[in-house]
Fold Trehalose 6-phosphate phosphatase.
Amino acid sequence: MGSHSSPQLPEQLPTPATPAGRDGLAALLADPGRAVVALDFDGTIAPIVPDPDQARAHPGAVPVLARLAPLLRAVVIVTGRPAELAARYGGFTGAAGLEHLVVLGAYGAERWDAATGEVTAPPSPPGVAAVRAELPGVLEKAGAPDGTWTEDKGRAVAVHTRRAADPAAAFELLREPLAELAERHSLSVEPGRFVLELRPPGMDKGVALTDFLRETGAGSVLYGGDDLGDLAAYDAVDRLRGEDVPGVLLCSGSEEVTALAERADLVVDGPAGVVGLLGELADVLAGRAG
Ligand SMILES: [Mg+2]
């Protein structure tokens, strides 16, 4: 927490419930040019609907984000959806004011940039390539029985023992050597039913958000979400607060999920409440800029 225990906050804005949240909002207002506003899509800026393919951004979302974006370091959408789909359902494509909007989709495995209109996916992590290359030697040395086979999943490599004469024995035999191989290349082993999958440690909204904030050199962050998948992003903001990047945890409140509201600094009423709050934020920032 900063040196100020109770920063002066404009009365147009709701006051965050925690000291860390008040510091976060104060930091955002003090230096908006270094602030990032990061938002989940479904349930946060897009109302939840029975058919997920019918989900669209709240009608006020694009206008308010377009007002905010030029005042901030960046606005980013962080979603489990494919990035291009969220961009389309959000109505972000070609929207004036959102020329620099970024959508981190598939929990950060994909990225859509408004500037190019294109989706990029980072190449498979180098650890996977190394494991792929070393795996045959490791299996041979471990005495993997006939029937052991490997499945190349692109971003992960899986070793199956189901076809071995004794699948359980083969599974146990390979557990340790594969764990060592994974560890050497910073991968984790995800055990399944007669399968050991070697893959990069979990990509989640927290990893995606942290990487984006580092990339943009963010000095503060406001993260808004509505669901359990947003807890990883909340955790990331908590960690960053400890590293002198103040942050605000915003919750798009609903009757369905309460776990997030308990952790939030600010709880508003669904996507309409999020849009309302962002509008107040834009009013305050624009008023100062003008
Ligand atoms: Mg959501």
The domain at 19-122+204-289 is CATH 3.40.50.1000 (Rossmann fold). The mean pLDDT is 91. The pocket of magnesium ion is lined by residues 40, 42-44, 225-227 (CB under 6 Å). The chain has two domains: 19-122+204-289, 126-199.
